Amino acid sequence: MSLEHFMKEAISPWLKEDGPDSDIVMSSRIRLARNFSAYPFPLIAEGEQLDEVLEKMEQSFSQRSYLDYKDLAFVKMTDLKPIEKQGLVEKHLISPYLANKSGHGAALISENEQVSIMINEEDHLRAQLYFPGSQLEQALEQAFQLDDWLEEEIDYAFDEHRGYLTSCPTNVGTGLRASVMMHLPALAITRKINQMVPAINQLGLVVRGIYGEGSEAQGNIFQISNQVTLGRAEKDIMEDLKGVVEQLIEHERHARAMLVERSQLELEDRLFRSLGALQYSRIIESKETATCLSDVRLAIDLGFINHISKSILNELVVLTQPAFLQQYAQRRLTPEERDIFRASLIRERFNMEQKEEL
To answer: Of 5, 15, 278, 320, which sits with the fewest C-beta atoms within 10 Å of its C-beta?
Structure first.
């Protein structure tokens, strides 16, 4: 399986499926940070040592199948062009940190893109597993199975008192980062999300943008995850996160209902204007695109629009990012050219949907 397989479509196969509360929770992710006991951690390791880790992972796991996640493909960062690495970031298959790191990095990615194991990022291994909708327990159960499968070939760096040892102190212990990607447009429109973020942070959780640490919450998509693992059991981490997610779902649904009750005409006007911008714009920037896609997604969830599939919106969230735009155009584009090409591509995608209906 080659890189072309992962760049062929903007939307990962697993993301085409619906999950519980998928009108608000787009995805659930479990990430486990692990290190080899026999090698220094990536931040201080020599290049030869990191290459040995790569060789070990490729020999032990490349083209192997874990459960239904067939054919783990070994993708080496030094074999990729910058635009290809950015494309994998836009699909959440690797982190921006791994994409920007020079040499000695790789990833093992399952055929359906639900499993991705980053190699020599901040830690030797950062294994992540995605599920659609709100499915943290299912994701955690399978992540633990994946962890056991990896440990059959790897001796992890582990301390009886501290737990799993990692490069960053906040990951020591369980090495677990659980997160959910949530679409919270009503809380954003009513500005209530600004009041909630500080309260969430006080619970040991963190709210980030769509691409994690340092990224902006474009399109009203927020990533909520635990911040600390040391001294905390997996069960406690999950219960805290689940509790906050359930409250956010409740608050978002209430905010949507209030918007419809108090200002439905103004809300519909905003949402349909966004649909018009997507269908007819000749130039559109990425931030405006994200906002319009968020509005149209909300219109679908509220039943105002029923002739457009949300899978198209999921696809366009990725397809309109810089790397995928240029991959689709098959050439480098200036920022101005990207805005023109983005608008053209969106119009084309909506026209395809209309023809399929006919």
So the answer is: 5
Q: What is the DSSP string of 191-202?
A: T-HHHHHHHHHH
Is 134 within 8 Å of 180 (Cβ atoms)? yes
Average pLDDT over residues 67-96: 89
Two tokens, residue 303: 């039943």
**Model pLDDT, residue 250:** 97
Residues 240-274 as b or e (16 or more Cβ within 10 Å = b) = bbbebbeebbebbeebbeebeeeeeeebeeebeeb
Torsion of CA 63, 92, 320, 315, to 10 degrees: 70
Residues 88-96 have a mean pLDDT of 91
* Model pLDDT, residue 358: 43
Mean pLDDT value across residues 151-178? 92
- Look-up of token digits 């608008």: 343
Measured between alpha carbons, how far is residue 87 from residues 14, 96, 291 in Å?
17, 10, 21
CB 185 within 8 A of CB 141: no
